[in-house]
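REQUEST ID: PR-0412
SUBMITTED BY: lab tech R.K.
PRIORITY: routine
TASK: structure prediction, single protein chain
INPUT:
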Amino acid sequence: MITAEKQRPKVRKPAKPVENETAMVVVIKRLTRELAAGRFKGGQPIRETVLAKEYGVSRSAIREALNQIVGWGLFEYIPYRGYQMKEFTVDHLIQWNELREAIEPIAARRLAKTRPPEVLKQLKQYNDDMEQAFNNMDRDGIFKADLGFHSCVVEHCGNENFSRLQTISNLAVSFYLGKSLAEANHTVTEITIFQRDLRKSVKKEDFEELFGTTLEGHKELYEAIYTGNQAEAEDMFRIHAHNQVENMEKYVEALNMHKHFFR
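STATUS: complete
OUTPUT:
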């Protein structure tokens, strides 16, 4: 009888649905972090076996997680080819920035009301990182800090619908898509209105003009949340996000008008 009692837990050990579900959540969270880090590029194949070995989980857990992100519209499954990162367009970027315009002002208002000290500390650190990257003329560092700041506001605003991994992942992809589009066309100098925005400038004055406004804007956004000014935080984030939408719309217009300038 004692032996039988000891063996009962072992009989239940293969109850892998719970283990797989837990593993799937772990994989999704890790994939979300890596999406936020810009690991995956448009059209890049995503191999189940490679991820299973890298993450130390079963292929079934990887497959469940990938299917979840397929449902988010970030990955896609192609029969006989497997999973890959979707190829996105400027139109996708506009749509995601419109999503930002809808949720970030509300998220900022909610966060300005609660102002958790640990979240304020994180936001301050992101701005410090951005300023350091700005001083070092580090584009990648600026984009990383910018994404971290906005993701932090959305993630910790207290609205579960905003803080879902799907929303955070879409936000991350929109940032990196915008970065990639800008850098892909850095050789374009003929379009006056975008001359400095589209080229990969090495001149300090151009760099400062391009990113100085972003840095100062983030300091103002942080101050509104830090002081608990809910109305100002909401308004400033709305203007900030709306400017992103307008910039992308102008970008699309320039692309359509000057296609012969692009390779």
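NOTES: The longest helix spans residues 230-257.
REVIEWED BY: pending
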